[in-house]
Amino acid sequence: MLAFEALRAVDERDAYANLVLPPLLRKAREKGDFDGRDAALATELVYGTLRRQGTYDAVIAACVDRPLSEVDPPVLDVLSLGVHQLLGTRIPSHAAVSASVELARVVLGDGRAKFVNAVLRKVAQHDLDGWLERVAPPYDDDPEDHLAVVHSHPRWIVSALWDSLGGGRDGIEDLLAADNERPEVTLVARPGRATAGELRDALDDEAALPGRWSPYAVRLSEGGEPGAIEAVREGRAGVQDEGSQLVALALANTPLDGPDKAWLDGCAGPGGKAALLAGLAAERGAVLLAAEKQPHRAGLVARALAGNPGPYQVIAADGTRPPWRPGSFDRVLMDVPCTGLGALRRRPEARWRRRPDDLDDFAPLQRGLLRTALASVRVGGVVAYVTCSPHLAETRAVVDDALKQYDGSAELLDARPQLPGVPALGDGPDVQLWPHLHGTDAMYLALIRRTG
Ligand SMILES: C[S@@+](CC[C@H](N)C(=O)[O-])C[C@H]1O[C@@H](n2cnc3c(N)ncnc32)[C@H](O)[C@@H]1O
To answer: Which residues participate in S-adenosyl-L-methionine binding (predicted)?
Structure first.
């Protein structure tokens, strides 16, 4: 029931599963008769159903005698939840069908419950592999459509990810499969306020693993609760993907001639990278200015930075009309708004909401913000252009345009040496991280030096 309510909210109100679920789970716990295992199951059902929606729609379409667009959305939600239980969990088939029919009876009425029963009995005739053989076009006929159905991604996203990743079938299959896995929770110990060792000491040995590459990272194993750690509650540590840590560290570690006193984060909200940079800046005697257009998100940045051991400033400002003087910073981070195609594993519904047109909406803003970054840094200083999307239209295309405009007065640096020990960074000079290769979100990083 709770999983159904969450799916309805996501479908009907364009809500985000990660925002809708916690209050529903809280309410269920308060009513009693609902424990941690129930919460874990409900969460898995919602996330799994949303992620796998593309595959499940193809299966349901093969079991009903009308187009899916003519099936009422609440009926489709009950069916999808039932299909996920049948094909994506170890719940026994009879239990999955009877629970779904019972749910349909309560929320949809007897007539539709019969329809749900008939469809799910057909679905139960094969397992997931059996269905994929039946509903996915053969790889050799249409590789992208095959992968779209098998790995439940919109075809245009398969195509875009493959363009950026390059290579053959194995790599893209691994990437798409990684998007369907629940990501590990990674913590960051904010420099000068906590250490990774302190975070690990606060957890059982099995509950915490060291970061793969970031000295500030701690990876939580299954069931690790960030809120149970004092340093997280006090804001001395936070939840942050290791890829986000790596790009911030790369900017901080790029060698610089001359002064290194003024750092800028031009798109700082909600403040994860700003908090890491502010701590590093404090260790070097530098000051961070964190700017964010949305005032309420600037408030989140202020909260993330409160308690930083060195000086910093947070302002609400539009990075395309910066209030600061040109050339006044030694290091600049521009972590621009983007489609988020590199973080699909975190937002199960995002892949179905995004449209190719979104790229056109972001393009001028991304270019404008990178222009600001290049204008804000002094000659000899360095800019990190960052996205949490690997789409080439948001990464290389934006950087190439900026370099053309700054012909002779900006150069792309090889970013790879600034991510020491990280394997599979490609041919450079920019860096693309990948969930299936690095266990991180697909963050993109270009380091650009102003030369004149
Ligand atoms: C990808 S997020 C940044 C994430 C952040 N660096 C972090 O690690 O927590 C992009 C941010 O840019 C902000 N933004 C959008 N347009 C902006 C603009 N014109 N100037 C400054 N910030 C902007 C968005 O509100 C959003 O908070």
So the answer is: 267-273, 292, 318, 335
